[in-house]
Write a structure and sequence with these properties.
The complex is a heterodimer of chains A (111) and B (919). Chain A has one domain: Winged helix-like DNA-binding domain superfamily/Winged helix DNA-binding domain (Arc Repressor Mutant, subunit A, Orthogonal Bundle), CATH 1.10.10. In chain A, 57% of the residues lie in helices and 14% in strands. In chain A, strands 1-3-2 form a 3-stranded antiparallel beta sheet. In chain A, a hairpin with a 5-residue loop joins strand 2 and strand 3. Chain B is α+β, with helices and mostly antiparallel strands. Chain B folds into 4 domains: 69 residues, no CATH class; 239 residues, no CATH class; 317 residues, no CATH class; 195 residues, no CATH class. Helices cover 54% and strands 14% of the residues of chain B. Chain B is built from 29 helices and 24 strands. In chain B, strands 3, 4, 5, 6, 7, 8, 9 and 10 form an 8-stranded mixed beta sheet that branches. In chain B, strands 15, 16, 17, 18, 19, 20, 21 and 22 form an 8-stranded mixed beta sheet that branches. In chain B, a hairpin with a 4-residue loop joins strand 3 and strand 4. About 2% of the residues of chain B have low confidence. The chains are: A alpha+beta (111), B alpha+beta (919). Chains A and B meet through helix 2, helix 3 and strand 3 of A and helix 2 and helix 4 of B.
């Protein structure tokens, strides 16, 4: 396992954006999302069930993701989450905002 | 997903919480399993992998809780949870719950009741479209004039004025007129018994301007209000129509018989509309063109000087009020100049004319007559009940503080287990809201039952209140809701904050909250001091009102109402002309009734007590007019035995006799004040006077009335009035229809009333007797409002003192209970009962002293500040009456002392052994 750096202190709302991004490729179950985020971030972000599941529940309520029970690759049942059209739109706007914001911060840091 | 959908899913998951939870369980299990198999893939042993996975997933319950609280329905759930805890807590302490609910119910109920009255009298708009566009010309006070040219703001207007205004004012889309003269009219419906109805005489524009549609038939229009006598039609109010015809539309076209004339019912106004004075609802509307038929003797449709109409205009949208008032004033001056002054007028007249103007007053709530009379009493009552509620709040806050201390351990445990302070404060406030809500529900029930009861009592006996629509509307409900929320916050916030600010360790160790008790003590002590101070204020206020009431009941009326019965009847329906035949009929009735066994005297009169007055200036021959004798004189026209009937003693001269008739010289009897004012140095007997204005010029004065007697002063219109000049004339010389017939008799009313009715029916079966009531009832009802305020304020003040006493009792009991072991030690060391008694009483005496020191000066200050306001409500009592304030202080002191005495005595009965052991 890669060494943990600043774990978890995700900016409020960023987790949801990351989840949206992860789900944009294909529907996944909860652990899949956590694993994907951890792998892609190179182990920087480790999301545990305690923050992932409430976030997914919130997003489902907001209509950004939808869920269904499906069997997994090794024939277990798991709850799969997928993006709704609304979630896709939310991802686009949030990504754009995020880029604008980081670019601005980067400019300030470089100045 | 919209809000609605989220609401539905939220509620769904709330009701199927178990299923949602098991689903979460499944998901968590799947999560852990996936993690475990993933770990295994990375080369861990199965056992190892499973444990690492569980570590990764975290506490199953914690995750579930986090998911649950990320959803809105979790706060609803915790609210329900808090409510459940609250109800359980209230049920566990029934004594506290009962006292708190009772004081809240009384406090909120009283506020709701008084506000309902205020709403009905002062706030509710007329049930017409855009009532805010309606403006009354003048302030609507009952200042009428039949011959003078007023130089002050005009209040009432003549019919020709109204016509001119309607034709010429541009700021108004229309002007409606209604007669201000109130005639107790009797009607007969299709051969049935006569009944009294309230008739509004209105202009043809009335319903148009008010934009009131008919429910049936048609309403009065311009064509009905043409030439005098041209519109014998009537519009019924919905209520009257329902009472008489049970909503049968066949009633349209039938006729009603009113004072000798038939009127066709042409329509029914929309339900809910009862005229411009909702507190004095109209039964029938009749066009002003019938003024002469409805009120014979009081009419003048073509007379510019007969100013008797209320004018209400509907302002055009967007028209500024000041501009409308200016334009109306300008028109008024033009009209007065051409009609009164013949287009010219002296310098003096023109100067006076410059002061004549029209004030426009909002008529969105109708005519302000009732408002003028009830604003002050209702404001006083509202203030009183608000203070009572404040005291109730202080009491409950105090009890909650005590409860908070008792629950300190529970709260400390919850905080130690990780409940946030906010969560606990919310829970405690939920309890407060629960309490306030229950109290408000009970109080609202109480208020409406109470008001119904009050009105029922009122209509049985002497009427003190007008007919009011007391049904709750959105304003009343909003007010009650607001009061409830404020109340809950007022009594709940401080205890909730206080009992969560706990030093956990000692509380948990000790469990009795000793460390927080002293600070609670300071807060609850100041609450008690506040209650004592407020009680003094309320008691002093009710003392003032009661003393004023007592003074009113002790006033020398100048007449004796005992054994006098007043019959109100309608002679118009006798269909007799105004001449000797009418006089004969009246004399015949008087003689026949006088000869009844047990009857001492009987007489007709224009007025009896508290029925209004006919007033205008008088001038005496060879007496120079001055400011004193130019005042209005009150006139009454009476039968020969009226003075005996009312027991008004003759001081000099003679009474009217049968010899004073239509052909003999005109005579008058005056009262002492008039005699003294006009003839300070000589007897008034033999002087000649006339009913004429000494300052009116260009008029030839005919001093045709001789003063033949002087009688004692009496009260004429109100008990509280000063001395008025008054004069009586015999009806044989001033023929008129009467509405009052007074009989003095020792016979029981039950046998007298039918006998008198029979005699009147024998003499003329057309004359209808509407009701008979004792003269004493008229006297009583003239101060009914003062009586109501006096007793209500006394009731509320007693309630306040009682609540404050409960508060003191609770505080001292609590402190005795807390000091049980200390008292036990003191006793064991040899302290005597009196010393212990004093030790406990000292605490309450300090509170009492502080309460008195604050309460008395503050109440006196408030009374001084309100002096001008109170002076109109109080009769011969100063606003800072020492007796009232002294009594208030004594009562509060005695009650506080008694409330402290009971627990103090208990302290002396403590068994030292038990006290020491319980530590």
């Amino acid at each position: 396992m890669p060494k943990q750096e600043a774990n978890g202190d995700l900016v409020q709302g960023t987790l949801e954006m990351l989840i949206l991004k992860t789900l944009a490729l294909e529907p996944m179950h909860g652990y899949g999302v956590a694993l994907r985020i951890e792998q892609i971030s190179g182990g920087v972000f480790r999301v545990n069930a305690g923050s992932l599941l409430p976030a997914l529940s919130r997003m489902e309520r907001a209509g950004n993701v939808k869920s269904e029970w499906r069997s997994t690759e090794n024939n277990r049942r798991a709850k799969y989450y997928g993006l709704t059209p609304k979630g896709r739109k939310a991802l686009a706007t949030e990504t754009e905002q995020w880029e604008r914001r980081t670019a601005a911060i980067a400019r300030i840091l470089e100045a | 997903m919209g809000i609605i959908k989220s609401l539905i899913t939220g509620l769904h998951s709330l009701f199927h919480k178990r299923r949602i939870e098991s689903e979460l369980d499944d998901e968590l299990a799947a999560f852990a399993e996936a993690a475990a198999s993933d770990n295994q893939r990375r080369g861990m042993s199965p056992e190892h992998a499973r444990r690492a996975a569980l570590l990764q997933t975290g506490s199953r319950n914690a995750v579930k809780h986090q998911v649950w609280s990320s959803r809105w329905e979790s706060s609803l759930e915790s609210l329900l949870h808090d409510l459940r805890i609250g109800i359980r807590g209230l049920l566990k302490t029934p004594a506290f719950t009962i006292v708190a609910l009772a004081s809240l119910a009384l406090g909120i109920g009283a506020n709701t009741a008084i506000f309902t009255l205020i709403n009905a009298v002062l706030l509710r708009p007329l049930p017409v479209s855009h009532p805010e566009q309606l403006y009354l010309f003048g302030k609507g006070s009952w200042v009428g004039s039949v011959d003078d040219m007023p130089n002050r703001p005009w209040q009432l207007f003549s019919y020709p004025f109204f016509k001119d205004f309607s034709a010429q004012t541009r700021p108004f889309s229309g002007i409606a007129a209604q007669s201000s003269i109130q005639m107790g009219s009797h009607i007969v419906l299709g051969g049935g018994a006569a009944e009294q109805v309230h008739i509004d005489l209105v202009s043809g524009s009335y319903f148009n301007v008010l934009e009131v549609p008919p429910a049936l038939g048609r309403l009065i229009g311009e064509s009905d209000d043409g030439a005098p006598g041209a519109g014998p039609v009537a519009v019924a109010s919905w209520g009257w129509f329902q009472r008489h015809f049970q909503g049968n539309p066949g009633a349209i076209g039938r006729s009603v018989h009113i004072q000798g004339h038939d009127y066709t019912i042409i329509g029914v106004a929309k339900p809910g509309f009862t005229g411009l004075a909702p507190a004095d609802p109209a039964d029938l509307w009749i066009p002003l063109s019938m003024q002469k038929e409805i009120s014979p003797g009081w009419n003048g449709l073509d007379d510019y000087k007969f100013q008797s109409l209320y004018l209400v205009g509907r302002l055009k949208p967007g028209m500024p009020l000041t501009q409308a008032a200016e334009s109306a004033t300008l028109l008024l001056r033009q009209l007065v100049r051409s009609e009164f002054l013949g287009g010219a007028g002296s310098q003096d007249d023109l100067a006076r004319l410059q002061r004549a103007r029209i004030d426009l007053v909002s008529a969105s709530g109708g005519l302000p007559g009732l408002k003028l009379r009830y604003t002050a009493p209702l404001t006083v009552l509202m203030g009183i009940v608000a203070l009572v509620l404040l005291i109730a709040c202080a009491n409950i806050a105090n009890m909650l503080l005590a409860r908070g201390v008792a629950r300190a351990r529970e709260l400390a445990v919850r905080q130690a287990l990780g409940a946030t302070r906010r969560r606990i404060v919310v829970q405690l406030l939920t309890e407060s809201f629960l309490l306030a809500g229950l109290g408000a529900a009970l109080g609202t029930l109480l208020a409406f039952r109470g008001l119904q009861l009050l009105l029922a009592l009122d209509t049985q006996g002497t009427r003190s209140m007008p007919l009011l629509d007391l049904s709750p509307d959105h304003r009343v409900l909003g007010f009650t809701l607001l009061v409830t929320v404020l109340t809950a916050l007022l009594f709940g916030i401080a205890p909730a904050l206080r009992s969560t600010r706990i030093d956990l360790t000692p509380t948990l160790r000790d469990g009795r909250g000793a460390s927080s008790a002293s600070s609670r003590g300071a807060l609850s002590r100041s609450l008690i001091v506040g209650q004592i101070a407020l009680s003094i204020l309320l008691l002093a206020a009710s003392g003032l009102f009661l003393r004023s009431l007592r003074n009113l009941t002790r006033v020398d009326l100048g007449f004796d109402p005992r054994n006098v019965t007043v019959f109100s009847l309608d002679e118009y329906s006798a269909n007799l002309p105004l001449d000797a035949r009418l006089t004969q009929l009246q004399q015949q009735i008087e003689q026949k009734v006088q000869s009844l066994p047990g009857v001492q005297s009987a007489a007709f009169s224009m007025f009896t007590f508290n029925q209004g007055a006919w007033s205008s200036p008088m001038t005496a021959q060879n007496v120079t007019p001055n400011t004193l004798n130019s005042d209005d004189v009150l006139y009454n026209v009476i039968g020969t035995q009226y003075l005996q009937t009312a027991s008004i003693p003759l001081l000099s001269g003679r009474n009217f006799t049968a010899q004073d008739n239509a052909t003999s010289p005109h005579v008058a009897i005056v009262n002492e004040t008039l005699a003294r004012t006009f003839f300070p140095n000589e007897s008034a007997l033999g002087h000649h006077v006339c009913i004429c204005d000494p300052n009116a010029h260009g008029q030839k004065l005919d001093f045709d009335i001789e003063i033949i007697g002087v009688v004692r002063d009496a009260k004429y219109m109100r008990i509280g009035e000063g001395q008025h000049m008054a004069a009586y004339f015999p009806y044989s010389q001033r023929v008129q229809y009467f509405g009052n017939f007074s009989v003095k008799s020792t016979v029981l009313a039950a046998s007298l009333i039918p006998a008198v009715r029979r005699i009147i029916a024998e003499v003329n079966p057309q004359i209808t007797v509407a009701k008979a009531e004792p003269l004493s009832a008229q006297v009583e009802s003239s101060i009914a409002t003062q009586r109501l305020i006096g007793w209500l304020s006394a009731f509320f003040a007693s309630l306040a003192v009682f609540l404050a006493a409960i508060g003191t009792y609770g505080l001292i009991s609590y402190s005795v209970a807390r000091r049980t072991s200390e008292i036990g030690v003191r006793m064991a060391l040899g302290a005597q009962a009196p010393a212990l008694l004093w030790m406990v009483l000292r605490e309450s005496l300090t509170l009492l002293l502080a309460g008195l020191l604050i309460g008395i000066p503050v109440s006196l200050g408030i009374a001084k500040g309100l002096t001008s306001f109170l002076q109109t409500e109080l009769f011969h009592v100063s606003a800072t009456d020492p007796v009232a304030f002294l009594t208030a202080s004594v009562v509060v002191s005695v009650m506080t002392f008694a409330a402290a005495w009971l627990p103090a005595r208990r302290a002396t009965k403590v068994d030292p052994l038990i006290a020491l052991r319980c530590e």
